[in-house]
Amino acid sequence: MDSFELNKIAGAVLGVALLVMGLNMLDGIVGAPAKPKVPGYELPGGEVASAAAAAPAVAEAPIEERMKTADVGRGERAVGSCKACHSFENGGANKVGPNLWKVVDGPKAHIDGFGYSAALRDRKAKGEKWGVAELDAFLKRPSAYLAGTSMSFAGVTRPDQRADIIAYLASLK
User: Alpha-carbon distance 173 to 168, whole Å?
Assistant: First the structure.
């Protein structure tokens, strides 16, 4: 094969590549979509409603009322996921979180030597105790009740389940 044949092959390949690129440019010019005035998609309805605004807020009963129907057995089952970080038996070892034996009506940050957050140690210094209402608020959303807490748990959303858990914790004496 001589150099003239190689030039013809190379010219054919480059010609096809040039033709494809030219057709692609022409398609972009002729078939370009119109740009919207506002980026994004228009949603039907015209209003954006959040899920929280759509659902009516249900007022939860006071913890004292919920404690009347709370069940220790249901509470013991409900703390199953808590056992990854806490122990519940008398003299049990501290884990990531402290042992919760005798926590109800006891002082906050009740175990000496445990690495509580500064926020909880400050509450202990003020003489605060873990009453039923305090535990209910803490279990609902720990970070909202105690800013700066090191407990990364999201919280227990069901009010009746929180009451069951508190009834179980109150039985640990």
Answer: 10
